[in-house]
Amino acid sequence: MSEPLTVLFMPESAYGPTNNCIGIGDVLRRRGHRVVFAAEASWKGRLESLGFTEDLVDLAPPSADAAAGEDAGQFWKEFVRDTAPEFRKPTIEQLDTWIRPVWEELISGARYCQSQLTGIVERARPDVIVEDNVIAFPALLTAGVPFVRIVSCNPLEVKDPGIPPAFSGYPAADRDGWQAFRSEYERVHRPVWAEFNAWVIEQGAPALPDLEFIHEGALNLYVYPELADYRRTRPLGSSWHRLDSSVRQTDQKFVLPEAVAGPGGTLIYFSLGSLGSADVQLVQRVINCLSCTPYRYVVSKGPLHNEIKLAPNMTGAEFLPQTSVIPLCDLVITHGGNNTIAECLHFGKPTIVLPLFWDQYDNAQRMQELGLGIRIDTYRFTDAEMYDALGQLLSDSELRDRLAGAAATIQQRDGIRKAANLIEQAAVT
Fold this sequence. Notes:
It is built from 15 helices and 13 strands. It is α/β, with parallel strands linked by helices. Helix 1 packs across helix 15 and helix 4 packs parallel to helix 7. The mean pLDDT is about 90. The strands form two sheets. The protein has a seven-stranded parallel beta sheet with strand order 3-2-1-4-5-6-7. Strands 10-9-8-11-12-13 form a six-stranded parallel beta sheet, with helices on both faces. It is globular and about 60 Å long.
């Protein structure tokens, strides 16, 4: 680029979307562009230390914890912890008791920060705006510059009659239940969407697509490897581009602690993500199960790390540089968040998936049906089922070779630089 750009990123206040934007933003920053993050206020200091400009927003009235410096994305960690019993229900029953409240909370945040975002746009004067979230922020659409949407959740959120409904976890090859799920989703969400759409229009932004909570952009990117992507009956338009992965290069190097650094032997990474690990009872249940296996483990303990007790064959910490840990491991046990799944395929690792919410059911089902991993029941699995899954995946040399070949292709496609190139083009087109 002959002239430096100002790129404004607004990610969802969770580690997955924020880390995705960090990876792309770092490429742009190194090219000489000014990168501004309008992230949620609990990320204060974490983005500036990486060389970005911070101009942060509150999505709700600041709490006493926020004034004391709460953890990044703390609200959602607490939200997940308090509503974890809902995850034991069938996905169709969660639509009214989990998915709808999440949409309502996201809408509340969009409303609350509208004037703040307007001010940020005026101060930053961006050449292009990039949002990695699932909810519309009108101020980002009325800025008079190109708007880029990133879908770093499962691509089922971009709907098509030939693929399963998002959030369902239903198989791609069996349409039984698809229509019932879609009908229930509409029944539950139509009033919520209609009220939000009216407010979006009042702010001067375009109307939302029917039953969608976010607009398409002039450029649209979604993170999902071609290896696992869905076959659509209606191909996406020319503004849509797939990123096979979006693996940041800002994580610190990870050195295995002495407790698990011995030569040889299987090494496994276990993480339920920054949000899922707030369910301490579940994390401890998995740890207790894995403690009886002959393998070594690296465990991401999450925000309530002081309440989690590791076994002698494990090491772990509150936060780990995941993209530096996964390459060292033979297998990953995960909640199935989209970024983690894409990172596992980027590095050629099989997965055992224990889904908790949102797109995780869909990713777990996709890994299972493609033979790239095994989905097990998060709250009802037996020790024997976990041990069988471990044995099956670790002994499958054909799968190991298949994943290694896929990883070479994914890495060669270099998703973060592809995204940076497309964002640069969008800014000047």
